[in-house]
Design a protein that fits this description.
The chain has 75 residues and is an all-alpha fold. The chain has a single domain, classed as Orthogonal Bundle (Non-ribosomal Peptide Synthetase Peptidyl Carrier Protein, Chain A). Helices cover 64% and strands 0% of the residues. It starts with a helix and ends with a helix.
Length: 75
């Protein structure tokens, strides 16, 4: 099921990796998507800006997948 947070996250990943939005699944790890630690932080920062939220640094540094990132945003 798709929602605003998931769609925004997928859009950001597509932008960062320069791929089509449907090229990845929220169930992929960052490693599977070829996302390095700097790109992961960029994704978190863009989610914060795009959704007007704040994510604690320790939480942002610990995520290893898109699903973890989306769960963290929802919490």
């Amino acid at each position: 099921m798709s929602d605003q947070v998931s769609e925004k996250a997928m859009s950001i990943v597509a932008s960062v990796k320069q791929t089509p939005p449907n090229a990845a699944s929220i169930h992929n790890t960052f490693e599977e998507l070829g996302i390095d630690s700097l790109e992961a932080i960029d994704i978190v920062f863009e989610l914060e800006d795009g959704l007007n939220i704040g994510i604690p640094d320790e939480q942002a540094l610990s995520v290893r997948s898109l699903a973890e990132t989306i769960d963290g945003v929802r919490n």
